[in-house]
Amino acid sequence: MRNASNKIDPCLDWTSSTRDRTTTLGLAFTKSKLMAGKVSVTGGVAYSVGKTDIDVTGGSYVNNPYAGVAGNPSAAIAAYYIPAIPLPTTEAKSLELTLAGRFDVNKSSSLRVAYGFKRLRSTDWAYEGMQDGSITTFLPTREQAPTYDVHTIGISYIVSFY
């Protein structure tokens, strides 16, 4: 029952608990002294999944807009208690791949080549409010949860003076 003094109101008893879980799996390798000791190769792959859950307890009252309206029974409920519900899970998945090689041209110089790939896919309920038609009090930004694919390539020629 709604309490006018708010001293024992269940709406004042809010709690939340957050749980983060991250799982990562990776593998790396190195192979050297190939082609008469002139070539070495390294690489690796890593996969990660992170999830966040936010659970809440408590709730809030909302007034019945039809209470006290003519034609409505006098026994109509004046206010409804709406319990809080957990927020949707946010999730981020990433994949990273690296591959590099070194070729020793002679004792004082070498050629290095590297390739990298990174992918991120994420879902976050906070971005849903930034879409057209979601909130009418400001202009939407249309921002999306971060998602990308990145490829990198590197080539270098190294000379040592000794």
Describe what this molecule looks like in 3D.
The chain is an all-beta fold and 162 residues long. It has one domain. 0% of the residues lie in helices and 58% in strands. The chain has no helices and 7 strands. It has strands at residues 15-34, 39-57, 59-63, 79-83, 90-106, 109-123, 147-159. It has a 5-stranded antiparallel beta sheet with strand order 1-2-5-6-7, with no helix packed on it. Strands 3-4 form a two-stranded antiparallel ribbon. β5 (90-106) and β6 (109-123) form a beta hairpin. It is elongated and about 95 Å long. The termini are far apart. 0% of the residues are buried.
Sheet with the most strands: spatial strand order: 1-2-5-6-7
DSSP summary: helix tally: 0
The structural class is mainly beta
* Rg calculated over all Cα atoms: 30 Å
Sheet-strand content, in percent, reads: over 45%
The end-to-end span amounts to: 86 Å
Order of helices and strands: EEEEEEE
Low-confidence stretches are none
Major sheet summary line: 5 strands, antiparallel
**Total discrete domains:** 1
Please state the average pLDDT score. 86
The total beta strand count reads: 7
What is the overall shape? elongated
Assign a percent range to the helix content.
under 10%
